[in-house]
Design goal:
Layout lengths: L3 E5 L3 H13 L3 E5 L2 H10 L4 E5 L9 H11 L5 E5 L4 H10 L3 E4 L4 H29 L9 H13 L6 E4 L6 H10 L8 E5 L8 H6 L1 E2 L5 E2 L2 H4 L4 E5 L6 H13 L1 E3 L6 E3 L3 E6 L3 H6 L5 H7 L2 E4 L10 H16 L12 H4 L5 H18 L5 H10 L9 H7 L4 H19 L4 H8 L3 H11 L6
Parallel strand pairs: 1-2, 1-3, 3-4, 4-5, 6-13, 6-14, 7-10, 10-13
Antiparallel strand pairs: 8-9, 11-12
Helix pairs in contact: 10-12, 13-15, 15-16
Length: about 450
């Protein structure tokens, strides 16, 4: 059965009774006598279910406070509250906060076991549903037969039995998070959390709280991603965006696997596998004193580079077939028949890489639903020709940049391309980001770095 249940009750006779009832049914059981002991047990290892008495003698915190703490840390953890002298208001409050069930003392062993069984079953069903949705919506397969993709697939297989830290590099939309998820799912940590910390989306003053969590005077705790990922995998997405002064803290965690929460006094031990990703050149940032060299060597134990879609065009027909099927499945519609031999697919530069191709397939699928017998190949041609700046045979753009060094030519291309896209979308950042396959925040940073102004 391998389900672990934590019993929290200040009465040793009750703890003994409940523990024995559950042990006889094959459950693994741990117990705690008060609030502090319970916190230590939960932080050591999150149980499958917790049974908590409302009244706890020692300290100012009772079972309701402990329930709030658990729900703040992991809302999916089922909790059964028990009490011999609680009123209806307390029971309603416990359910409102997130308890699965409220049981009055005295109770029969059959009643308790029934509640435990149901709570675990409901939680299992919810997790299975979430896993299925996560797989369907967020974890597309790594599709391709090109040499680069086959090499990456072999690397993922080799990393299954390892605990090495990994640095995944590549441009936006190449599939860095997808590879990180595949590595996690193939590892011994697969049943534990996979947590993404997107370093590009936070304001600098919020990094420490998001990473380490915070303790408050009333005893409540906001858990950071380090604790949420305990015993699992933490993806430091766009690791280059972590502020320089915070990087030393990350380095210390990698070395010690422990830290203190903000305003906390006790060290929290964690067991986490770190995977990092970046679309920037970290070696260049090191030279510019924007990224710590010692941190780079710590996170770059096993490097994985994601190739541009333009460099593996032989995978395009496979990707089209896969995404057409998957998107039709997600939306409950008929699969769009798209010609994978359309010449434009191979003359297009794919600035948004695989993500842009996926968005294109979704766009064609949705558009073809609302117009009977819509020619999907014509749709594809119209969409790609509507973005001439990204066609390889755009000689005017090429000739305009031939006299520049590579770096300046690239910047000139990006400036022309993004300015054109923004004009087409009337300066709308969200629409532009969606069309080109970039995150809105990433597009903002790119526009700022290229000095493109005057657009909202």
């Amino acid at each position: 059965m391998n389900k672990e249940i934590l019993i929290i009750d200040d009465n040793p006779d009750i703890r003994f009774l409940v523990c024995n009832i559950l042990k006889e049914k094959g459950y693994i059981v741990r117990s705690a006598a008060n609030y502090e002991q319970a916190i230590n047990e939960i932080n050591t290892k999150t149980p499958s279910l917790a049974i908590i008495d409302i009244k706890l003698d020692k300290g100012d915190k009772d079972g309701i406070d402990l329930l709030k703490l658990i729900m703040n840390k992991d809302k999916s953890l089922p909790v059964i509250m028990i009490s011999g002298h609680a009123n209806v208001q307390v029971a309603v409050e416990a359910i409102r906060i997130g308890a699965y069930e409220f049981v009055e003392k005295p109770f029969t062993s059959e009643k308790l076991l029934n509640y435990v069984k149901r709570a675990l079953e409901v939680t299992h069903i919810k997790k299975e549903k979430n896993n299925a949705e996560n797989k369907l919506f967020h974890s597309f397969d790594l599709v391709g037969k090109s040499a680069e993709i086959l090499k990456i697939k072999k690397t993922i297989e080799k990393l299954a039995a390892a605990e090495s830290r990994i640095l995944i590099t590549g441009q936006t939309g190449t599939g860095k998070e997808l590879v990180a998820r595949k590595i996690h799912k193939n590892s011994s940590r697969a049943d534990n959390p996979f947590v993404v910390f997107n370093a590009a989306l936070l304001q600098e003053e919020k990094y420490e709280k998001q990473l380490f969590g915070e303790e408050y005077e009333n005893g409540n705790i906001d858990y950071g991603v380090l604790e949420k990922a305990n015993h699992g995998t933490l993806l430091l997405d766009e690791v280059s965006e972590i502020p320089f002064k915070i990087q030393s803290n990350i380095l210390r965690i990698l070395i010690d696997q422990k830290f203190k929460r903000i305003k906390g006094t006790k060290e929290v031990n964690v067991n986490i596998r770190i995977i990092s990703s970046t679309s920037k050149d970290l070696k260049k940032l090191i030279q510019e004193n924007k990224f710590r060299e010692d941190l780079y060597h710590r996170i770059n134990v096993v490097p994985v580079h994601m190739p541009l879609l333009q460099s593996r065009t032989e995978d395009i027909p496979l990707l089209i077939k896969y995404f057409s099927n998957k998107i039709a499945e997600i939306n409950g519609v008929q699969e769009a028949k798209i010609d994978g031999n359309n010449d434009l697919l191979y003359s297009y530069n794919w600035p948004g890489n695989v993500r842009e191709l996926r968005n294109l397939i979704e766009r064609i699928t949705i558009l073809s639903i609302h117009e009977d017998k819509k020619d999907t190949n014509k749709l594809l041609t119209d969409i790609l020709k509507d973005n001439p700046e990204s066609l390889n045979d755009n000689h005017n753009l090429l000739n305009n940049t031939l006299s520049y060094p590579l770096k300046e030519a690239r910047e000139q291309f990006e400036t022309n391309y993004l300015t054109s896209q923004l004009k087409k979308n009337n300066g709308n950042i969200s629409k532009t980001a969606d069309f080109i396959g970039m995150e809105r925040s990433a597009l903002h940073r790119k526009l700022k770095s290229l000095g493109i102004k005057g657009l909202n």
